[in-house]
Each structure stands twice: as structure tokens, then as C-alpha cells.
Design goal:
This protein is an all-beta fold. The strands form 2 sheets. Strands 2, 4, 5, 6, 9, 10 and 11 form a 7-stranded mixed β-sheet that branches. A 4-stranded antiparallel β-sheet has the order 1-3-8-7, with no helix packed on it. Strand 5 and strand 6 form a beta hairpin. About 35% of the residues are buried.
Length: about 120
């Protein structure tokens, strides 16, 4: 079992930055791939980024490539999403997830943190 708790969301102006954190509990955290997803109002949840448990593989959605960076610290059982050059269309609830591979499936989900980017 893995429990996930996101933090770091908030309100930021366009062009600004935020860093999201996802704290995981469970002894096997280091063996899971970790991902970030987001869901905007009226839209389906979409993939944002993922990182393998070895940290060798990272995947990004085209919409965030070059602006967002996913990383993980296994010693702290935490995965991060550094978000730069934020745009209003990045406004969403951001969720972290844990799964066997960076391509999914995703077995565990956090409750989400709100990110709002004002224009």
C-alpha cells in the first residue's frame, strides 16, 4: 500500500513558478514509478509527467515539455513537479500517482492540489 499526499498548489500569475510535492508513505515507494496528472474544470484527467523508480526514465506531456520538471527523492519518499512559465491553461487540480511503470497502469492516487494561474 502507498498513500500519497500532494502539497504546494496555489495561485500564481502567468509566467510564474510553483513546485508541487507529493509525499508517499509505504515501504515500497522507491520501487514505484511516479506520475503527475491534472484535471481542469469540465475536462478529463490528463497525464502531465512521470518518472521511473530508477529516475532514468522521464516522460512529459507535449503541453508541458520544457516548462515542467519531475524529480524524486527516495530518501524523503517524495516526488516533485517543478512548474515554470505557467500559463492560465495550466490551471487544474494536480494529482500524483504511483504505478509499476511510467506508462501505467496507476495503482495509487493522491487527493489532489489546486493550481490556479491568473492572466
Amino acid at each position: 500500500q502507498v498513500q500519497l499526499v500532494e502539497s504546494g498548489g496555489g495561485l500564481v500569475q502567468a509566467g510564474g513558478s510553483l513546485r508541487l510535492s507529493c509525499a508517499a508513505s509505504g515501504r515500497t515507494f522507491s520501487r514505484y514509478a511516479m506520475g503527475w496528472f491534472r484535471q481542469a474544470p469540465g475536462k478529463e484527467r490528463e497525464f502531465v509527467a512521470a518518472i521511473s523508480w530508477t529516475r532514468i526514465t522521464t516522460n512529459y506531456a507535449d503541453a508541458v515539455k520544457g516548462r515542467f520538471t519531475i524529480s524524486r527523492d527516495s530518501a524523503k519518499n517524495t516526488v516533485y513537479l517543478q512548474m515554470n512559465s505557467l500559463k492560465p491553461e495550466d490551471t487544474a487540480v494536480y494529482y500524483c500517482a504511483a504505478g509499476e511503470r511510467t506508462l501505467g497502469p496507476w495503482d495509487y492516487w493522491g487527493q489532489g492540489t489546486q493550481v490556479t494561474v491568473s492572466s
